[in-house]
Amino acid sequence: ANGADHDPGDHDSTRLHGLPAGLWNRPLVFKVSNSAYSRNKLGVREDLRVKYNQQHYRRVFSDDDSLRALEESSAQPSLLDLVQRWLERTPGLNRTEDCDFQFWEEYKMAVERMLHEEYLLPAERETDPSLKQLKMADYKKQLDAFHSIDNLEVYNSYIEKGERNFSHKSFQGALMIALYRDEPRFSQPFHLLTLLMDTDALLTKWRYNHVLLVQRMLGTKIGTGGSSGYQYLRSTVSDRYKPFVDLFNLSTFLIPRSRIPPLTPKMKRSLSIILRGKDEDEVEKD
């Protein structure tokens, strides 16, 4: 609803009935429940969610139907889980007898050459001390960034901190699809990754608009239910509520087209095939 259609004074009359803030009427109770359900299905990590009134979000609901639906949604594989499983099967990631192209090894060598030629050598050749220091700092910054996706232990530490959601293998798959998106077999997968980012972006925009509406109606008032209102909702407009945040950060690790490792003839043929319900192993044998 448009905030201009609401008079902030209208909300105070609902408080007289003892309704907690955020639960002005029954339809909104459904919306809150549906929001938690949607986050479970999308894959928003529970350990990263801001607590509502310092308690787990499930304790907000008392009716059995809502609780049952929330429990089932959290027990089932989320969209994030399914996308990761799919990405981990990206051709070129796993060593097999039929695959003569190892993407991750080729990518790391390409990055090493790029950092050496475009960052380290210019820094070493710089004669001005201040510029040399700046260029070396830039090289170190780039080196640390790529090291964060190369070293498994470092990569997993970012997952523990909530800055990444994808497994190391699924991240590799997403990066390969992004780099080789012009190959026919990766065209639709890349489009899917784009749609997943659009989903995150639109939901973030929706939450932000909701935050502005609440701020317009309530300001920073504390609801009768003890909710932190605007402050709580504002905390949900962050990367921790974006299950596919890793896809947004892929651009950090894309390399110039001229430095993308060339595919082997066999891998080139494999990626020239657009799968239409055919098993990947069967395609490799054709």
UniProtKB/TrEMBL annotation:
Q: Could you give a single Gene Ontology term from the biological process aspect?
A: L-tryptophan catabolic process to kynurenine
Q: Which InterPro entries match?
A: Trp/Indoleamine_2_3_dOase-like, Trp_2_3_dOase
Q: Name one Pfam family in it.
A: Trp_dioxygenase
The record ties this protein, via SUPFAM superfamilies, to: Indolic compounds 2,3-dioxygenase-like
A GO term for molecular function:
heme binding
Annotated signal peptide: none
- Give the protein's recorded name: Tryptophan 2,3-dioxygenase
Q: Whose protein is this, by species?
A: Macrostomum lignano
Query: What broad taxonomic lineage does this protein's source fall under?
Result: Eukaryota, Metazoa, Spiralia, Lophotrochozoa, Platyhelminthes
